[in-house]
């Protein structure tokens, strides 16, 4: 039982216990000398984001020692920072983090709670012009240029084709097709889609500017009407399916091997890259369709009340160096959000980013779904279930 917590202690209490330790240190208990060392940056992050190779490079080349606290998910990041800001276990305890990892879809919630501090003025210097409107739409970038969040990694759900003729998907002289390319007679019964992405595609089809989705956040009737239309828009896609996939195992089963039933569909960008590298017999092509594709952006933010924001600024400056961002991407397997880093990535990864996102302006067609709440979240989940289990 060593190291195990009593089953009656919930996560919130555990977080408070951790902050009690910080409070004792701040109220009389001696802290070790390295705690205030100018190289030390206290970072709250998700597992896998800062492997040892990256930390060693940042220490060697940029004089930064990352002291990483690992969080299970976005809700844990929120809880840890909120509790620290609200004075648990006692008022006056220092904010225990200088920087934290945060998804763009969560920025609006954090800003509403006044939990984010402004970033240094040059923090967004490496951000591609194509991404700036996306950041502004999610509350990460103000009209006056003030930013509270800087992108680190990006991902997307791309349209995928495998097998004979796949190359023609990306080589069309009139640009990439729309998602309705999957409805062609030649692909009937040979399409595989991921249900969560499929519903977002349906939302984009029936509500391209997001007006109805915003209304659905607080209005049950609006949510029901919106996702009734989404279900109708997805009906022909459901009819074209060989099957759905929901994780890496089912994706491989659908798309790899001689008996794979799928010729086309959607894929997370990391899976599409891996498939292209592994597939020696059948060509693989991917595009961001004409009407765009759902994507995601993970980034970095300084919590309000951070004691050493200048150390956070040093890490942001280090990651603005394309070679450093590329080293981070190579070590984690995640695509850096800075396109200037793509040429320095390992060949398969960098070539994929250049061909799918840079060529043909694919990056500018990505859109980042918001974090859903209220009736919209419930209606979305119900639509997803209907797509997966008709």
UniProtKB/TrEMBL annotation:
Presence of the UniProt keyword Transmembrane helix in the record: no
PROSITE patterns, A to Z: TAT
One Pfam family here: SBP_bac_8
Keyword Signal present in the record's keywords: the answer is yes
Q: Which domain of life is it from?
A: Bacteria
Name the InterPro entries on file. SBP (IPR006059), TAT_signal (IPR006311)
Check the record and name the SUPFAM superfamilies matching this protein. Answer: Periplasmic binding protein-like II
Going by the UniProt record, its keywords in alphabetical order are: Signal
Q: What is this protein called?
A: Spermidine/putrescine-binding protein
Q: Which organism is it from?
A: Roseospira visakhapatnamensis
Its taxonomic placement starts with: Bacteria, Pseudomonadati, Pseudomonadota, Alphaproteobacteria, Rhodospirillales
